[in-house]
Design a protein that fits this description.
By secondary structure, this protein is mainly beta. It has a single domain, classed as ph1033 like fold (Roll). Helix content is about 15%, strand content about 35%. The chain has a six-stranded mixed beta sheet. The two termini are about 30 Å apart. About 25% of the residues are buried. About 5% of the residues have low confidence.
Length: about 140
C-alpha cells in the first residue's frame, strides 16, 4: 500500500538551496536529500507517491509529481540522508496552492495555512494527494 507525500522546498533556506525544478532538473530520476531530523522518513517505501510544493514568497505553488524508488539511504553527510525518486513529471505551469487550501484535511486554520507546510516532508492522506493532483491537472 503506497504512502503519499508532499515534498516541500523553500529556496535558499534548506539543503536544496534552490527551486525544485533546478534541484531535479528535467531528469526522470534524482536523489532527494532528507534532513536527519525529518519526521516520518522511515516510512518511505518504493512506490510511494510524491507531489512537490515550492514554498517561499515567490513560490506557493505545486510543481510536479514523482515516485519514491528506494528506501531511505543513509549518508555519511552529518546533515542529511537521501531517497531516490523517479518517474518525475513537472507541471507545464506552476499551480497556485491557495485556491485548494480549504479542501485539505491537514490544514485546519486557513488563516495560518503556511504553518502546515513546514518540515520539508508532509505525509498526506490519499484524498489530499488526489485533491492536489486533480486540481493541478485541471490547471495544466
Amino acid at each position: 500500500m503506497a504512502n503519499y507525500w508532499l515534498f516541500v522546498s523553500v529556496p535558499y533556506t534548506d539543503f536544496n538551496a534552490g527551486q525544485i525544478k533546478d534541484i531535479i532538473g528535467r531528469d526522470q530520476s534524482a536523489l532527494w536529500e532528507i534532513g536527519k531530523k525529518t519526521v516520518n522518513k522511515q516510512q518511505f517505501s518504493p512506490g510511494d507517491q510524491i507531489i512537490f510544493y515550492q514554498g517561499g514568497k515567490s513560490g506557493q505553488t505545486l510543481i510536479g509529481t514523482a515516485e519514491i524508488a528506494s528506501k531511505l539511504r543513509r549518508s555519511q553527510n552529518p546533515i542529511n540522508d537521501y531517497v531516490k525518486i523517479h518517474k518525475i513529471s513537472l507541471f507545464k505551469h506552476p499551480v497556485p496552492i491557495k485556491p485548494v487550501l480549504n479542501k485539505l484535511s491537514f490544514v485546519r486554520n486557513i488563516q495560518y495555512w503556511g504553518l502546515y507546510f513546514k518540515g520539508g516532508i508532509i505525509k498526506l492522506t490519499k484524498n489530499d494527494y488526489l485533491t492536489f493532483l486533480t486540481y493541478a491537472r485541471v490547471l495544466n
